[in-house]
Amino acid sequence: MSLTAQLPALQVVVPLLTAPLVVLLRTPGLSWAAATAASLTAFAIAVALAGQVLAGEVIHYEMGGWPAPFGISLNIDALGSLVLLLVTGASTLALVGGRDSLATEIEAGRRHLFYAAWLIVLAGLSGIAVTGDAFNVFVFMEISSLATYVLIAAGPDRRALTATFKYLIMGTIGATFYLIGVGMVYMMTGTLNFADMEVRLAEVTELRPIVVAAGFITVGLALKAAMFPLHVWLPGAYTHAPHMVTAFVAACSTKVAIYVLLRFDFFVFQNNLSQHDLHFASFLLPLALLGILVGSAVAMVESNLKRLLAHSSVAQIGYILLGASLISEAGITAAAAHMFNHALAKGAMFLAVAAFALRLSGVRLNDIAGVGRQMPLTFAALAVAGASLVGIPGTAGFVSKWLLLQAAFAQGTLGLVAVVVVVLSSLAAVVYVWRIIEAAYFCEPSAEVQAAREAPLPILAVLLLAAAANIYFGLVPAFPLSLAEMSATELLGGLQ
Amino acid sequence: MITVVFSVFLLTLLVITALGVVRAQNLFTAVMLTGIFSLLMAANFFVLDAADVALTEAAVGAGISTVLLLGALGLTPREERASGAKRWLALVVTALTTVVLLYATFEQPRLGDPQAPVHQHVAPWYLEKTPELVDIPNVVTAVLGSYRGYDTLGEVIVVLTAGIGVLFLLGLPGAVGDRPRDDIAKGRTYLSHHLVPQVVGRLVIPFILLFALYVQFHGEYGPGGGFQAGAIFAAAMILYALIEGEREALTVISPKLLIWMMAGGALLYGSVGLVTMALGGNFLDYNVLHSNPVAGQQWGIIVIELGVGITVAGVLLAIYHAFAARGH
């Protein structure tokens, strides 16, 4: 078999098998280099796969050479490929720029274990994005969750442990709900393969176990995706994790759960449960709107920079779910595009936070007062990413928000409510992003801030790259948009 | 009929035990009850003819987990701190979940119904094709090791991640973190004042080790395989540590070797996949390992099971030592 044909497997296998190697490499420098190399390779594979998907190829791979449904098959569709780009891209940027930041937060003697856990998160999230098997999703969800708990628990103070514990309990409940749902579908269909499930469900549709399974799967994944009101684990976990971990995890991990949610609900259930689209929309839409409002409101009054951005993430997850809950071509395109753009904006902002943290003792708004004049490049990148988060024209964030508004307008009265909520929360975003900029640029610097220098080169380079991507994809959005449109067509294809 | 009666009996005991765990204020009691819970669960699995799962549950759930929880208990107070808060919301959510689950049971296939969908689709293919394609009597091993070998690799990584997490947070003297080896018990052991366990323990350890090897290499024919064997092997070594002391146990299998076992088993498993790729097959396609595909399947399964066993034993022992060293 050619190397190209092996790419879907290598996407997961490269980080998965580099992880145990990193456990054995006990020097911090070597383990960082190995992890970064594996992550870069994974990113290159994701780019190659995205190229194949855009060229219209159907990517299918049979693990162990066994055909589905007897073995596990990998299927990479447009949305999966988009998610792969986010996961591997975020990991690579955070690793390349993160060496100094992680060195200050994690002691040398155990840093190799940290990098091993990082690679396992990367492999786990990628594994979910490529697989075509419902139980395989659970296995890789376990892998990525367990390793994420390790990364978050590595946070510098003891509050990281309580935040991790909360996340662990909630995350385990979410995974268990998903497993119960998959178990019930298996009981009624005898298969674990997504495509096969869709076919075989037609015979047992409307039976109670299937209806209940749809509920369990949706709620379990909503927990993992931090959908309001199941988001209570998120602010603590993002705040107390090491800064680079926050940049990595915030950019992609909730989006992977949303990806599975969409895949299950659109591919497997929509055709087989009568009025499932109506139930799905009426469950998701109000919660998405509430999440947008509550997340934005809390972010407006929060004074810890990381916690502020975390609450903003709750609102942004609301945008993505809002787009999906419209169940229209335009809505899903907007949701998929917003996954990509929010990852760019929020990833860049958390990278900027990590850069500040390298020079300052804290990241509360008081701590960063006046830092903009001492670290102008870092500040500029933060401002660009902030503009993208608000949705100012010319940035990536604007593109998907505009699509979302258009999709909502097309829905009539209910859509107007959504439009009002989106506009309100955008105003809120202006407020909270402005609070950061005001603190960082217009406030009087403390003695510590006056002594601060610009962040070290690797993190600065990565940060500027991420900020530039926010502008580039705002001006030339063709690449993410065509993947997003393909995703919408594929997901809605199940509805005809 | 007798199966149903047994199942109802065991499940009733299971519910009572679960309530006992929740209600227990003394953590030692709670840990003991979770051990009983797992043993009952294992019996349940066995009644349902899932011997492989039963063996795993008994070895890992009732055996090793209980020991690890006891190790953790050495670091915490014995009594649960009374919490004044009445958790009504939690109670409501739990009750609702129960009702929904009960609702779902009404239209599920009858227990053991041969017409049930699970017995009509993939399972018959496994039963029919395994003798021809893999040629081992235990179909469960064929499913776990070959048809769904990728999932099993994932599970090995889950176990490895658990080990990485515990070592990252607690450290392992002599391997991870900078604590010196002298930190660990100096001659004192948990069982040093108890003559009977010492004598009996020394007598049975060789047999437990032998049994672990049997379960490891007999998995193709009977219930068993790497997960169970690794757990049983770790159990024997933990018993050794309890009798002879931490230092002795860490001399037999040094912390450095433990780390190599943890990572090495997973690497061994993964490298089988890489070899099959290099030979022109898909990842974990054992057919290409040998000119005769069936022999290739058997070789593949034996090697990956060995990888599973090594990682599981290494991780469980490392976790145990991390807790035990912390307790002194």
UniProtKB/TrEMBL annotation, chain A:
Membrane-spanning residues? 6-25, 32-54, 74-97, 113-131, 137-155, 167-189, 209-232, 244-262, 282-301, 339-358, 379-400, 412-434, 455-475
Any single GO CC term annotated in Swiss-Prot or TrEMBL for this entry: plasma membrane
Q: Name one GO molecular function term.
A: NADH dehydrogenase (ubiquinone) activity
Query: Which part of the chain is the NADH:quinone oxidoreductase/Mrp antiporter transmembrane domain?
Result: 133-422
* Tree of life domain: Bacteria
Question: What membrane topology was assigned to this protein in its record?
Answer: Multi-pass membrane protein
Q: Return the similarity comment.
A: Belongs to the CPA3 antiporters (TC 2.A.63) subunit D family.
Tell me what this protein is called.
Cation:proton antiporter
UniProtKB/TrEMBL annotation, chain B:
Q: Name one GO cellular component term.
A: plasma membrane
Q: Indicate the segments forming the Na+/H+ antiporter MnhB subunit-related protein domain, all copies.
A: 197-317
* UniProt-listed Pfam families: MbhD, MbhE, MnhB
Q: Which family does it belong to?
A: Belongs to the CPA3 antiporters (TC 2.A.63) subunit B family.
Indicate yes or no for the key word ATP-binding: no
Topology with respect to the bilayer: Multi-pass membrane protein
- At the top level, the lineage of the source is Bacteria
InterPro entries, alphabetized: CPA3_antiporter_subunitB, MnhB, MrpA_C/MbhD, MrpA_C/MbhE
Compartment list: Cell membrane
> Which ranges carry the MrpA C-terminal/MbhD domain?
13-78
Main localisation: membrane
What keywords are assigned to this protein? Cell membrane, Membrane, Transmembrane, Transmembrane helix
**What is the protein name stated in its UniProt record?**
Cation:proton antiporter
Tell me what organism the protein belongs to.
Answer: Parahalioglobus pacificus
Q: Where are the transmembrane segments?
A: 6-22, 27-47, 53-76, 88-106, 156-175, 195-215, 227-245, 257-279, 299-323
The chain positions of domain MrpA C-terminal/MbhE read 116-170
